Amino acid sequence: MASSISLAKFAHPLVPLNSSARSADRPLFSDPFFSSASSLLAASSSAKLPKLAASRSTRLRAVSNVVKETNLNSAPSPSNLLITKQEGLVLFEDMVLGRAFEDMCAQMYYRGKMFGFVHLYNGQEAVSTGFIKLLKKEDCVVSTYRDHVHALSKGVPARQVMSELFGKTTGCCRGQGGSMHMFSKEHNVLGGFAFIGEGIPVATGAAFSSKYRREVYKDESCDQVTLAFFGDGTCNNGQFYECLNMAALWKLPIIFVVENNLWAIGMSHLRATSDPEIWKKGPAFGMPGVHVDGMDVLKVREVAEEAIGRARRGEGPTLVECETYRFRGHSLADPDELRDPSEKSHYATRDPITALKKYLLENNLATEAELKGIEKRIEEEVEEAVEFADKSPVPARSQLLENVFADPRGFGIGPDGRYRCEDSKFTEGTAQV
Ligand SMILES: Cc1ncc(C[n+]2csc(CCOP(=O)(O)OP(=O)(O)O)c2C)c(N)n1
Ligand SMILES: [Mg+2]
């Protein structure tokens, strides 16, 4: 493969991942969008690099044109900007919501309001926002255990997500899923998954179903796209490769979005994988592989727009590697002592929300007062979500064995129709079953 990135550079925490030096090193990123599967592979030869690099600027202009056309209601922005004011504010609000929601989760967790593991998304907001805010309601999102913010970006109300975390009946899964299993049929959020890689085949199945309905049932209106989000560590899991194969083979409308935050719990990505450049796995399967700075929502959005467009037009899947960073430990139970403090402080200076704020202000797309107004509104929304969750009822005991597919008589329910867990002999281990 043509790539001149050295591992040392990739690993160095003080080299900004979006520096121009780095981009110049990686002329292949994003450009496979313009190639068929076969020319993608051919493009790996260094002779093709100048041409591919040139096509990137063409794509940038095309994106800004599309954005302008689809936002007739907003004030026109200068031609060199990729977003309108209205879009910028939507992105900002969504990222602020994600951050404020997660900060509140940490408080509530330590106050004992939530149970089990809780994995926060702080620092990675540009990925969720950059992709999901471009989706239609019918499009699907599949997440991992780090799923609150994906659900929020897809439109699941904050109060429903918070109630789910509190284990209450008003939660999006009626309190039965908890932090790692956000699901909403209404919003086409097809789940958070505690087992790594488990969501990828579910997403592939959803994409297959869209294509099947369109091509076999001739439902022309069915142009849904599915986004599968997962981490760098998960890319060492077999399900990832099986799904890349099927998605490429059947040209499924799916985007595999890798949130490469450089760590899988306490395992460095560089120590765990034979080739740390995950994007390269796309061309290996005959689909575009794209690398993007996942701390820059505008760059993520630009790549997402292209990938979603391809999928919707029936041109098949894309693998997007977003280089990002989580600002907190792996979960709220993780003391986060393994990562180097200089690495953490380096990424803290690249906070995606601060960067977007700066962009909006410098380009006169928003005023300080407007952004403060959004922050205040979100703060109130999150406070309200906590009050709502706190006041909501806990599920009735009768809900315990709902959605359990095995026959609950026997293990769960005794011959008298009562829950066996209510029988003290059963909990003592002395019951005769
Ligand atoms: C099949 C399976 N094996 C192991 C685990 C334990 N586990 C939980 S999170 C995790 C690391 C995942 O890292 P990554 O994919 O990079 O996601 P991140 O947490 O960084 O978002 C592992 C190995 C699991 N949940 N599922
Ligand atoms: Mg990771």
From TrEMBL:
Q: Does Coiled coil show up as a keyword for this record?
A: yes
Name the UniProt key words of this record, in alphabetical order. Coiled coil, Oxidoreductase, Pyruvate, Thiamine pyrophosphate
Q: Which reaction does it catalyse?
A: N(6)-[(R)-lipoyl]-L-lysyl-[protein] + pyruvate + H(+) = N(6)-[(R)-S(8)-acetyldihydrolipoyl]-L-lysyl-[protein] + CO2
Report the CDD domains cross-referenced here: TPP_E1_PDC_ADC_BCADC
Co-factor(s): thiamine diphosphate
The EC number(s) attached to this protein equal 1.2.4.1
GO MF terms here are: pyruvate dehydrogenase (acetyl-transferring) activity
In its UniProt record, which GO terms are filed under biological process? pyruvate decarboxylation to acetyl-CoA
Superkingdom, natural source:
Eukaryota
Q: Where is the Dehydrogenase E1 component domain?
A: 94-395
Q: Which InterPro entries match?
A: DH_E1 (IPR001017), PDH_E1_Alpha_Subunit (IPR050642), Pyrv_DH_E1_asu_subgrp-y (IPR017597), THDP-binding (IPR029061)
Q: Note the coiled coil stretches, chain numbering.
A: 364-391
State how it assembles: Tetramer of 2 alpha and 2 beta subunits.
Q: Which NCBIfam families match?
A: PDH_E1_alph_y
Give the protein's function: The pyruvate dehydrogenase complex catalyzes the overall conversion of pyruvate to acetyl-CoA and CO(2). It contains multiple copies of three enzymatic components: pyruvate dehydrogenase (E1), dihydrolipoamide acetyltransferase (E2) and lipoamide dehydrogenase (E3).
Full protein name = Pyruvate dehydrogenase E1 component subunit alpha
Q: Which organism is it from?
A: Cuscuta australis
Q: What is the lineage of its organism?
A: Eukaryota, Viridiplantae, Streptophyta, Embryophyta, Tracheophyta
